[in-house]
Design a protein that fits this description.
Oligomer: single chain
Distance between the termini: 44 Å
Structural class: mainly alpha
Largest sheet: none
Number of domains: 1
């Protein structure tokens, strides 16, 4: 007989996103970055669960635009690509 943990969910890796309290004024900005960085390592679903926001969330788009501009200035093509994809969703 096999025993399964109810919360195992395929043993997906757990990442600490360093999110502030939800009532913190920077919460949305930090969530936008967390979603983009998670997408970089193919962990979008984990970030969505941690932040409470889904990929493409309209209220995060202004923050994603700032991140896109920073990525462009830093020649971080992958982050810039992810930010553009987020904004198209």
């Amino acid at each position: 007989m096999a025993f399964l943990r109810d919360d195992a969910e395929g043993e997906m890796p757990r990442r600490h996103y360093g999110l502030p309290a939800r009532d913190d004024p920077d919460y949305d900005r930090v969530c936008a970055r967390a979603l983009l960085e998670a997408a970089r390592v193919d962990e979008t679903q984990l970030a969505e669960r941690a932040t409470g926001y889904y990929w493409g969330e309209p209220c995060l788009r202004p923050h994603v635009e700032v991140i896109r501009l920073e990525a462009e200035a830093a020649n971080d093509e992958r982050l810039e690509q992810l930010a553009r994809r987020f904004q198209r969703t």
